Amino acid sequence: MSHKPIRKAIFPVAGLGTRFLPATKAVPKELLPVVDRPLIQYAVDEAREAGIEQMIFVTGRGKGAIEDYFDIAFETEITQRERGKDLGALEGTRLMPGNAVFIRQQEPLGLGHAIWVAREIVGDEPFAILLPDEFMKGAKGNGCLKQMVDAYDKVGGNLVCALEIPMDETPSYGVIDPGARDGVLTEVKGLVEKPKLGTAPSNLIVPGRYILQPEVMKILETQEKGAGGEIQLTDAMAAMIGTQAFHGVTFEGRRFDCGSKAGYIEANLALSLERDDLKDHIRAFAQEELAR
Ligand code: G1P
After folding, report:
1. CB 26 within 8 A of CB 43
2. Whose CA is nearest to atom 9 of ligand 1?
3. Which of 30, 39, 113, 173 to mutate to test the pocket of ligand 1 (most atoms within 8 A of CB)?
4. What does pLDDT average to in each consecutive run of 10 residues of the chain (292 residues)?
5. Pocket residues for ligand 1 (CB within 6 Å)?
6. Whether this model's pTM surpasses 0.90
7. What structural domains does the chain harbor?
8. What values do phi and psi take at 168, rounded to 5?
């Protein structure tokens, strides 16, 4: 069966990033680097690898630096070129004209609202969502969204990435009520946002990667506030279960929750240990440091 291709992805980047204050007072949290690439760059690379053509950034006040980041760095490029310096580090950072769209979420009403803000740009086609502070690291060329698109090509409908975590951490996430499992696919029978401790239907959470059918926008239009008094994407998705196919996809790779300080530091450490120019130094330093 052939399904409508996934050409567009939404990156909700309007959040204030208060957990990283004061670092995020004047710099969007999405531009904090993991080694030497901003978090948002990894998410955009992941989307591009999955065949996404149009990147839609839902931004807010104080997030203008993200738009500049994906533009031409005119002064830097000219200066480096004049000095005969290599510009390889900027590869993938300039989005093609027309392939990047920036739109503002004017009020922090929740993730569901942020997605709904992009409804006219998404139009009548299925689309992806990537939450950039969830850093999903797959094998080169086979990132999380690519793995999900491959699954979508088989089953169509709606898919979320599905990840097992310790049960006591489920109150921070959207949680799946799982049905039958077949390989990497798990049927989604229900979804609940931030369940109270001890009430989660499973320890399978949604770590911020989605492929959704456009009908979700209609549901979001009238979606009531849910957990935390916010309009929740999870609630709108839950309303589609039973009317359309809905699956979880188990991702092969590593996940770093870069919305938390510990996860962010772990990502920096893990990635620097993979880099030829850094790994020997960092490994030796870490060993010395731990022995102190
Ligand atoms: C959001 C979603 C939640 C998801 C999580 C992943 O929550 O609402 O369903 O599991 O991202 O990080 P937030 O982190 O914005 O509270």
Report:
1. no
2. 174
3. 173
4. 90 93 94 97 97 97 94 89 89 90 95 98 97 94 96 97 96 97 96 96 97 97 92 97 96 96 97 96 96 92
5. 111, 131, 134, 173-174, 193, 205-208, 232-234, 259
6. yes
7. 8-259 (3.90.550.10)
8. -75, -5
